[in-house]
Amino acid sequence: MSALLKLNHPVQGIAMNAQQALAPTGKLRAGMNIGNTLFTRQNEAGELFGVSVDLMQELAKSLDVPLELLVYQQPGQVADDALNDKWDVAILAIEKTRAKTIIFSPGMTEIEAGYVVQQNSSFELADQVDSIGIKIAAPEKAGYERYLMTTLKNASIVHTQNFAGSLELFNQNQVDAVAGLKPNLIESMHLLPTGKLLQGNFMTVNHGFSVPLGRVEAAAYLEKFVKQLIEKSFVDSSIKKHQIIGLTAIKPLHNP
């Protein structure tokens, strides 16, 4: 599914090589992951809204090109299409295993990732979960799942199709813990009647613009663009507009 938006905001002085690098087809094709509702949401009519939509519209405006929104159900699907010429830019968790096929901009946001365990568990801190025999549910190819796959020393991952699948396994007592972005975990606690949210986190997830590997000029443009967004607090304003709890904008360097 896709939607084409014409943004009538002509911008003076746009370098043609930036347009060609980021929108070689004449439109900016944005890969939109609706699996992360902190960034992207979809109304009953199928229209997308949220922080990521604001960011993509601002980027298209800066390039003076139309914007096409391409919907993906999960972040792994977006990442898998990086070299298939399906999208020009996406917003994804910055994760080193994805760097084999993707170039990331500097981070724009921070989100804590943590765990929910059973209420009768002796664990109180996120750091305690990596223990022998512990099974952790996590959606396959989510940014935090990629991180856990490379850092866990004792616990094991049980892959699920999505976050809802992780909650289901937990409620069926097939896993000991659910891994997730803490805002999503907090929002889902009413669906986990026997669960408790552990203190602390196992990582802080940064999200940034992503372009397919090899698009060096596009990446260079996005690096400058992200700095401008941060300096004018665009990301922070968008987060506040959409009332997203748990998603934090990177602060400008001049802020203490």
Q: What's the helix and strand layout?
A:
Blueprint: E1 2-5, H1 16-22, E2 28-33, E3 41-42, E4 48-49, H2 51-63, E5 67-72, H3 75-80, E6 89-93, E7 102-104, E8 109-118, E9 135-139, H4 143-151, E10 156-160, H5 163-171, E11 177-181, H6 182-187, E12 195-197, E13 203-212, H7 216-231, H8 234-241, E14 248-249
Parallel strand pairs: 2-5, 2-6, 9-10, 9-11
Antiparallel strand pairs: 1-5, 3-4, 6-13, 7-13, 8-11, 8-12, 8-13, 8-14
Helix pairs in contact: 1-7
Give your account of this protein's structure.
This protein has 256 residues and is an alpha/beta fold. The chain has 8 helices and 14 strands. Strands 1, 2, 5, 6, 7, 8, 9, 10, 11, 12, 13 and 14 form a 12-stranded mixed β-sheet that branches. α1 (16-22) crosses α7.
Compose a concise summary of this entry.
This protein is an alpha/beta fold. It has helices spanning 16-22, 51-63, 75-80, 143-151, 163-171, 182-187, 216-231, 234-241, and strands at 2-5, 28-33, 41-42, 48-49, 67-72, 89-93, 102-104, 109-118, 135-139, 156-160, 177-181, 195-197, 203-212, 248-249.
Number of helices: 8
Report how far the terminal alpha carbons are from each other: 43 Å
Which range best describes the helical content: under 10%, 10-25%, 25-40%, 40-55%, 55-70% or over 70%?
Answer: 25-40%
Q: Element order, helices and strands? A: EHEEEHEHEEEEHEHEHEEHHE
Instruction: List unreliable stretches of 5+ residues.
Output: 6-14
Rg calculated over all Cα atoms: 19 Å
- The average pLDDT value, as a whole number, equals 92
Q: Classify the secondary structure makeup into a structural class.
A: alpha/beta
Beta-strand content estimate? 25-35%
**What is the 3D form?**
elongated
Summarize the main sheet.
12 strands, mixed
Total number of strands: 14
